[in-house]
Amino acid sequence: MDANSETRIESTYKAIQDHIDKLTENQNNILCKFDVLTSNVDELRKTIAQFSDKVVALEEVATDRRRLKTEIRVLKNRIDELYAIVKEGKEDDSCPSDPQDAESCHSGFSSSSKVTMTTGLDRDTIRSAYEDVRSDGTPTEWAVFKFDGARIVCSARGSDFTEFRTQFSDDDRAFGYLRLQMGDEMSKRKKFMFVTWVGPNVSVINRAKMSTDKAIIKDIISNFAVELQLESQAEIDIDQFKDALNRAGGANYGTGIRDL
After folding, report:
1. Beta bridge partners of residue 180, listed in sequence order
2. Which helix (H) or strand (E) holds 14?
């Protein structure tokens, strides 16, 4: 066998080996993605089972219906989250190509998935801010609640609406609670509003989670006349807020001059 033949054989062998390596890598990625989907489908089945149990409990138990309805709503929203996670498959990008790492990939995803779906509350600071806004004895007109990791905390409170507008960025998910003076010169009264902010850069999965997270924080922030969902800075407008409150509370009569 001459040198040229040996070179061609070695080149062909190397090309075949490269193809085998690529096929192995693709196979490992497919297996890892399958594990990811299986994990979320299993979680989805468990959540649907819990949902069914809550429906039965709601039908059979005559007391504490509000709590049961809240739990059912949270479970339903978790189902939506799981569908979004399965559909997006964003966590698949972290899957390793090494077969020995497949199990760790699966375990890591399961852990992170549960963390992202479980939101906690800093109840003391949220309740304190909520009561501060509601109190006639304090100048506080608004409070904003944002995500600190997997917890919702009170990130700011104040009395200037211009400052309130600066609390929401395109990457943020947040909630706001406001006290606005309504009525006319003959009948002034305070009205309260709850707002949900989802910035335009927020991912599909985090958007899906907002319905669940909103239900959780509304266990504390429960007294308001109007609820709005906002997705652009143009919607954070005090006149639009007051118009929404007027529509919810009926007409105002007087000179038409309003105190801002």
Report:
1. 191
2. helix 3-60
Q: What is the CATH number of domain 120-249?
A: 3.40.20.10
**Integer angstrom CA distances of residue 97 from 16, 32, 33, 102:** 19, 9, 11, 8
CB atoms within 10 A of CB 58: 16
Q: What is the pLDDT of residues 205-247, one digit of tens each?
A: 888 888 889 999 999 999 999 999 999 999 999 999 999 998 8
> Rounded to whole angstroms, how far apart are CA atoms 15 and 13?
5
* β-bridge partners, 178: 142, 193
pTM beyond cutoff 0.85: no
Phi, psi of 143 (to 5 degrees): -140, 145
Looking at residue 19, its amino acid is H
Residue 247: how many CA atoms within 13 Å on its side-chain side?
10
